[in-house]
Amino acid sequence: MRCRRSATLRSYAGDTSLPGGEVEPKDRTIEDTARREAFEEIGLTRNKLKVPLLCVLDPLMASNNLVVRPVVVLILDNTLRPILNTAEVAELFSHPLAAFLSSTPPFPAEPELIEAPYHTTIDWTYPGPN
């Protein structure tokens, strides 16, 4: 799932993001942080039977110089419904996991050239006012 951040947030308002946030002292693991943040932002249950952990991906550096540790879970219970914390999340939408794992861009990297008839015009020199 991906989120569109609330327009009222101080940083990255309106941007698309994954649910998540900073580690807090009560979080024992990165999985705990991810589950807590997902619960706070979109109401995703912390129940590990309904939403088991698949993996923790390698860390990456975000454009704002924060280290991001993506945590991937599988939502097994299709009756779960999101409860958005509208102070943080304006919208929630799904995004297929395969799109994150593919190295092929979803659109051509080079622009497509289209054959079109070539038209010319006659150049006229403006003689100036009479």
From TrEMBL:
Top-level taxon of the source organism: Eukaryota
One Gene Ontology biological process: coenzyme A catabolic process
One Pfam family recorded for the sequence: NUDIX
InterPro entries (UniProt xref): CoAse, NUDIX_hydrolase-like_dom_sf, NUDIX_hydrolase_dom
GO molecular function: coenzyme A diphosphatase activity
Keyword Hydrolase on entry: yes
Keywords for this protein: Hydrolase
CDD domains: NUDIX_CoAse_Nudt7
Keyword Lipid biosynthesis in annotation: no
Protein's name according to its UniProt entry: NUDIX hydrolase domain-like protein
Organism (species): Mycena pura
